[in-house]
Write a structure and sequence with these properties.
Elements lengths: L1 H13 L3 H15 L8 H15 L7 H12 L5 H13 L2
Helix pairs in contact: 1-2, 3-4, 3-5, 4-5
């Protein structure tokens, strides 16, 4: 729902409908209050590094193993697209 509000805000602002954009911003602020606290980049990197070590991942082919370990810890608390890119980068250097 929060992502939907952000998309609406950008569309309303592009259409010069600041009144509607302001209403969406208010709703987004209310929804954000119910979201779990996000993790910092350092915390995410530490969880990913631990998962890589625990899974014994050796390269990009083992990405599924790592994601399976980090997803329960990070779901709803981090952008999983960014987490996926981080895992891919760590495994490319592994």
């Amino acid at each position: 729902m929060l992502k939907q509000r952000k998309d609406s805000i950008s569309q309303y602002e592009a259409a010069k409908r600041q009144d509607l954009a302001d209403a969406e911003k208010f709703e987004a602020a209310v929804l954000a209050g119910y979201m779990p606290q996000g993790l910092s980049a350092a915390e995410i990197e530490a969880i990913v590094a631990t998962a890589v070590a625990e899974s014994g991942a050796k390269g990009p082919a083992d990405m599924g193993k790592v994601i399976a370990l980090v997803k329960p810890q990070l779901a709803g608390r981090a952008d999983m697209g960014e987490v996926s890119r981080l895992v891919k980068a760590k495994l490319a250097g592994a």
